[in-house]
Design a protein that fits this description.
Elements (H helix, E strand, L loop, with lengths): L3 H18 L21 H16 L11 H20 L1
Length: 90
């Protein structure tokens, strides 16, 4: 059986480790940089864009699409924080 302190530590590590891993380094890293010009867009990209536009015109549900709701993200984040606090207090 896992002790509550261990469970809290594992939860904090699971949530905190990815954040720490994405942090910027303190000192600059020596790298070799090559200056390049942006490549011209491929001819297929224009054809793809026109096909996507045609499909959007055909499907009326696409016009009403909205991305992730702030309420859902806020509630799930708040629930996660409350769960962590409960685990740490037990």
């Amino acid at each position: 059986m896992i002790r509550p302190a261990t469970l809290g530590f594992l939860a904090a590590l699971a949530l905190g480790a990815p954040t720490i891993a994405t942090a910027a380094p303190d000192r600059p890293i020596a790298t070799q940089v090559a200056v390049a010009t942006a490549p011209a867009p491929a001819p297929a990209a224009a054809a793809d864009a026109s096909r996507y536009a045609q499909r959007e015109r055909q499907d009326r549900q696409v016009a009403g699409y909205e991305g992730g709701s702030v309420v859902v993200i806020g509630v799930s984040g708040g629930a996660l924080i409350v769960l962590l606090l409960i685990l740490l207090l037990i």
